[in-house]
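Lecture 7 notes: from sequence to structure.
We start with the chain below.
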Amino acid sequence: MSRSPVSGDDEASRGVGGRIGTILVAFAIGAVYGAVATIGHRATLRIGDVTIPWGLAAALVGVTALLLGIRLVVHGRATAAAAAAGIVVVIALLTLPGPGGSVLVVGDLSGTIWSIAPALIAVLVVAWPELPPRRRADVDGHADADHRADA
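Predicted structure tokens for the same chain:
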């Protein structure tokens, strides 16, 4: 089974330009998602006296899914870190007051969680260790030659 150059196994053949391009695209995707999620994180559902912050939950799940997806597909930390940087930079910029004094990230509990949680998620996803590759089983279902001697 051949793997695409995006998978990270063929980093040398992509060259520096391809690697930089991948990192820039990941940063842009993170920045776009950070902007969209910052706008949507304030959405709530009110059921009686209970307010459910579904926008915040969806935005945090989206951050996690985006960063995990990039980390699993590209098999490297740099690209996931670039996407995480895009998310965090845009959230930081949209937290600042605009020219008229309006803000998109209010200083309440939901805004505080949205300001901090994506950075924590990014640290966890980027710093998580690489798992060793799984060994292929032979025709009998054994993982290596040591098990064949026992059979």
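Points to note: The chain has a mean pLDDT of 85. Residues 5-150 form one domain.
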